[in-house]
């Protein structure tokens, strides 16, 4: 059974509390006293800086009231939230959400798959708002392993980043990218954080990578930034790829990740890799499903 996930209001409150705890009085121009016991700012300090009442701000952190855009912007400014943090807070409050009448996952996958296949040497994947894999191309399977080998309830980018031995072996310096993916999921998910699928996914992460539970319980958010990564598939020399991401026009809550070879040699290496027999993501995945 999936663990019930908190609703957006509770998530917003937890997010604000986490950032309040991270701030020091000096960060906002206040003087800390020797006897101060609060790790971070006090609620009354945030309320005063935001121009709202203490009781109302307390209720906001408890998920009992709804903030307007203007008030939430003032609170975000008091908490020194960056642009990604403000967008995340707005989404949790019900603002900036994509329309709910987008295409069905199968229809979106059918529309985007030809685009993915147009990149014959660039691994690419289509993700839904939970980061579940909807479609992928041959270079993706050749580099990271075939997603079909992973049970459907674990066919998710966050699970792959932390629980797939193949991905962690192939990707050099995997941790910064993996953490950024978790931060971006939280930043863009909005009400999806309260969906049953999110609770189910966190259950699978807990089962398969309990040592990293602090990652998915963290309230930090960030945009998924473009970067260069180095990968080394089994039996190959290292090659460099440039990561970029795009939102399909038909469904802005979905995401396309594209890894583009940086040089002619990198493209040739990816082409050679695509000619090899495809490998499974994780040989033990089927055993976990059977168990």
TrEMBL record:
Pfam family, any one: MLTR_LBD
Domain HTH cro/C1-type: 15-86
Record Gene3D superfamilies: 3.30.450.180, lambda repressor-like DNA-binding domains
InterPro entries named in the record: Cro/C1-type_HTH, Lambda_DNA-bd_dom_sf, MLTR_LBD
Name recorded for this polypeptide: Helix-turn-helix transcriptional regulator
Lineage: Bacteria, Bacillati, Actinomycetota, Actinomycetes, Kitasatosporales
């Amino acid at each position: 059974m999936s663990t019930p996930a908190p609703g957006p209001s509770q998530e917003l409150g937890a997010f604000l509390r986490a950032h309040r705890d991270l701030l020091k009085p000096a960060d906002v121009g206040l003087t800390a006293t020797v006897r101060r016991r609060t790790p971070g700012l006090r609620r009354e300090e945030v309320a005063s800086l935001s121009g709202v009442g203490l009781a109302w701000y307390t209720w906001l952190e408890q998920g009992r009231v709804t903030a307007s855009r203007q008030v939430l912007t003032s609170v975000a400014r008091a908490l020194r939230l960056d642009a990604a943090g403000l967008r995340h807070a707005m989404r949790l409050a019900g603002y900036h959400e994509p329309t709910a009448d987008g295409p069905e996952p199968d229809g979106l996958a059918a529309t985007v798959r030809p685009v993915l296949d147009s990149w014959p040497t660039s691994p690419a994947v289509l993700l839904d708002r939970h980061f579940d894999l909807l479609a992928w191309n041959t270079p993706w399977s050749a580099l990271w392993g075939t997603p079909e080998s992973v049970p459907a309830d674990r066919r998710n980018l966050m699970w792959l980043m932390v629980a797939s031995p193949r991905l962690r072996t192939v990707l050099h310096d995997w941790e910064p990218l993996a953490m950024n993916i978790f931060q971006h999921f939280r930043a863009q998910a909005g009400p999806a954080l309260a969906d049953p699928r999110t609770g189910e996914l966190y259950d699978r992460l807990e089962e398969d990578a309990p040592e990293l539970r602090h990652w998915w319980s963290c309230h930090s958010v960030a945009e998924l930034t473009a970067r260069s990564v180095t990968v080394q598939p089994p039996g190959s020399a290292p090659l460099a790829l440039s990561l970029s991401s795009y939102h399909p026009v038909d469904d802005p809550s979905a995401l396309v990740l594209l890894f583009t070879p940086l040089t002619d040699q990198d493209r040739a290496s990816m082409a050679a890799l695509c000619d090899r027999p495809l490998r499974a993501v994780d040989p033990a995945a089927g055993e976990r499903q059977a168990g």
